[in-house]
Amino acid sequence: MSKLCVSLGLAVRQLREAQGWSQEALAEKAQLNRSYVGEVERGKTIPSLITLDKLASALGLKVSDLLLHCERISGLQAVYKLNLAAIAC
Q1: How do residues 19-62 score in pLDDT, each as one tens digit?
Q2: What is the rounded distance in angstroms from the CA atom of residue 58 to the CA atom of residue 77?
Q3: Structural domain tally of the chain?
Q4: What's 58's domain CATH number?
Q5: pTM for the predicted model, two decimal places
Q6: Can you tell me the distance from the alpha carbon of 46 to that of 34, in angstroms, rounded to the nearest whole number?
C-alpha cells in the first residue's frame, strides 16, 4: 500500500464526511460499488482516471482539485506524477 494510495483514500474520506455522506451515498452518486469506495478510502486500490473523475464529480470537484486535496494531506509531490501519468494515457 503506497503513501499515495493512503493519502488519496484519506482525501476521499475527508471530503465525503464533509458532505455528511455515507460510503453508500458517495458510491451511489459516483455510480460505483460501496465496497470499492471503501477500498479506495483505505488505500487498498489505485483508482483509474475514470474512477477518479466519478469520485471527484460526485463530490462536486474536478479531478485536479481532488488531487490537490490529496497533496495537502500527504505533502507528496508524487500526486503530480500521477496526474501527469493520467494525462499521458
Answers
A1: 999 999 999 999 999 999 999 999 999 899 999 999 999 999 99
A2: 25
A3: 1
A4: 1.10.260.40
A5: 0.80
A6: 15
